[in-house]
Amino acid sequence: MARVAGSSFFQEARLPEQRAVEGIAFPAVLVPSGGPPAQGSLDEFLAAVRSERASRLEPLLLEAGAVLLRGFPALTAADFDRAVDAFGYEELPYVGGAAPRSNVVGRVFTANESPPDQKIPFHHEMAQVPTFPAKLFFFCEVEPKSGGETPIVLSHYVYKRMNEKFPEFVEKLEKHGLIYTRVLGEGDDPSSPIGRGWHSTFLTKDKAVAEERAAKLGMKLEWTDDGVKTVMGPIPAVKWDEVRMRKIWFNSMVAAYTGWKDARNDPVKAVTFGDGSPLPADVIEECGKILEEECVAVPWQQGDILLIDNWAVLHSRRSFEPPRRVLASLCK
């Protein structure tokens, strides 16, 4: 079916997993207006992204916080790289992040390469460092045999629920922020969800350069015989979203406390209040429950592109049965 001249290339759709949050469908879902299978070539899709980004795609992202593009003719890592480029956002280098990941093509990386049986808890991308992406893309190149969803949840809604349930905790969190501590080896450890070594964390093998790059992040380094302990913070755990004019639960508190565990790291020591005092385990557990209760998990389909506003949405990863290949790209 040919599209009418001047009409949109994109059409909103509904999925059973979506939920209405304050009257807005989350996430927003766009499919080809010609109906499945995707009409036209990859070049037409990329041209439509360029022409409708400001008028259609970005307003939808601002409103919903996340947009799932489904049924479009981007099926390979190279296609995804071109699609990210078509959006026109500046790339953000992955400096200071914890996840083991490798470059695939252009500005496209693997998502967290930790083993499939491991869940990755909810977090804002790179919330533990001051320079973090404003937007991130995920792309499903190979859909999982089972599981492996990337659940998402609206950050301001998590803040609202936490503040209602634990006002004193949230007040202390807003006053002191958080300190994140992580012990890194030299090389990457793919068996760990936080196994990125210091060579790839700071994109160098030179300790002096690593010190310099850590200092720019406001991170302190304590060198050990076979690696380095990084101390980040105090850093705010609640931020103000100036665009949407609301407070957001912008941290990796639950992820660090429950998931920063490997041969080098004890998760309970991985994150504390900014004054150094320990976090209450019962509140962390309840926060984890709220994140799960409020999240949306759409099963991946090959070719799916999920655009997330990192100011609005936390994400996670469920365990899965291989094969699964989800790629990512970070943008300023």
- Overall residue-averaged pLDDT value: 93
Radius of gyration over alpha carbons? 20 Å
Q: Going across the major beta sheet, what is the strand order?
A: 1-4-5-18-9-21-7-6
The N- and C-terminal alpha carbons lie at a distance of: 37 Å
The helicity comes to 25-40%
Low-confidence stretches: none
Keywords: Oxidoreductase
InterPro entries: AlphaKG_dependent_hydroxylases (IPR050411), TauD-like_sf (IPR042098), TauD/TfdA-like (IPR003819)
Pfam family, one: TauD
Protein name: TauD/TfdA-like domain-containing protein
Explained architecture:
By secondary structure, the protein is an alpha+beta fold. It contains nine helices and 21 strands. The protein has an eight-stranded mixed β-sheet, covered by helices on one side. It comes from Lolium multiflorum. This is TauD/TfdA-like domain-containing protein. Keywords: Oxidoreductase. InterPro entries: AlphaKG_dependent_hydroxylases, TauD-like_sf, TauD/TfdA-like.
Helix-strand layout with pairing:
Layout: E1 10-12, E2 19-21, E3 24-26, E4 28-32, H1 42-64, E5 66-69, H2 77-87, E6 103-105, E7 108-110, E8 120-123, E9 135-142, E10 146-147, E11 152-154, H3 155-165, H4 167-176, E12 178-185, H5 198-201, H6 207-217, E13 219-223, E14 227-235, E15 239-241, E16 246-248, H7 253-259, H8 267-270, E17 271-273, H9 281-294, E18 305-309, E19 313-317, E20 320-321, E21 325-331
InterPro entries: AlphaKG_dependent_hydroxylases (IPR050411), TauD-like_sf (IPR042098), TauD/TfdA-like (IPR003819)
GO molecular function: oxidoreductase activity
Protein name: TauD/TfdA-like domain-containing protein
